[in-house]
Amino acid sequence: MKIYVIHGPNINMLGNRESEHYGTQTLEELNSSIIKESESLGIEVEIFQFNSEGDIITKLQEANNYAQGVIINPGAYTHYSIAIRDAIAAISKPVIEVHISNIFNRESFRSHSVIAPVAKGQISGMGFAGYLLALNAFIKTKEG
Q1: Is 51 annotated to bind ligand?
Q2: Residue 120 has what pLDDT?
Q3: Which GO terms describe its biological process (predicted)?
Q4: Is 72 annotated as a binding residue?
Q5: Would you kindly state where each structural domain of the chain is located, as residue ranges?
Q6: 23 vs 130, which has greater pLDDT?
Q7: pLDDT tens string 118-138
């Protein structure tokens, strides 16, 4: 099983931005924990980070041919990118939306996700563990 992990805008700034919401660990540390968990589960992962909406859409379209599923943290695009929402709706692979912070416990504009209605599920507010939970969800839903 191959899973694409797509980090959206500003995730590359982890460790330097809003530690009260995102903690102090870096993107490299997050990716390392994702790789470690994926290896323990027997999942192959490819990890990407894009600040550009178009790059995210292109990678989602590619995932339809090369991956069995996608974990995506669309960052701020969560709240308004109909283009990313439509790209997810257009592919046949399951997508799990992940957010490091609890988007429902922050500014009111963050509590609405245009992605959630087309995602298989959403994990919000569990920190870096949300990505690991999403990997495990792919295994559990595959089994039954």
Answers
A1: no
A2: 96
A3: amino acid biosynthetic process; aromatic amino acid family biosynthetic process; chorismate biosynthetic process; quinate catabolic process
A4: no
A5: 2-106+114-143
A6: 130
A7: 999 999 988 899 999 999 999
85 is in an annotated binding site: no
CA distance 34 to 3: 11
Q: Quote the tokens at residue 60.
A: 């989602």
The span from the CA of 134 to the CA of 136, in Å, is 5
- Does residue 73 have a known ligand-binding role? yes
- Please list the active-site residues: 22, 99
Please give the model's pTM, rounded to 2 decimal places: 0.90
By DSSP bridging, strand 2-7 and strand 69-73 are parallel
Q: What pLDDT shows up at residue 144?
A: 40
Residue 126 amino acid letter: M
Q: Are 73 and 7 in contact (CB under 8 A)?
A: yes
Q: Identify the pLDDT of residue 13.
A: 83
Query: HEC profile for the chain?
Result: CEEEEEECCCHHHCCCCCHHHHCCCCHHHHHHHHHHHHHHHCCEEEEEECCCHHHHHHHHHHHHHHCCEEEEECHHHHHCCHHHHHHHHHCCCCEEEEECCCHHHCCHHHHCCCCHHHCCEEEECCCCHHHHHHHHHHHHHHHC
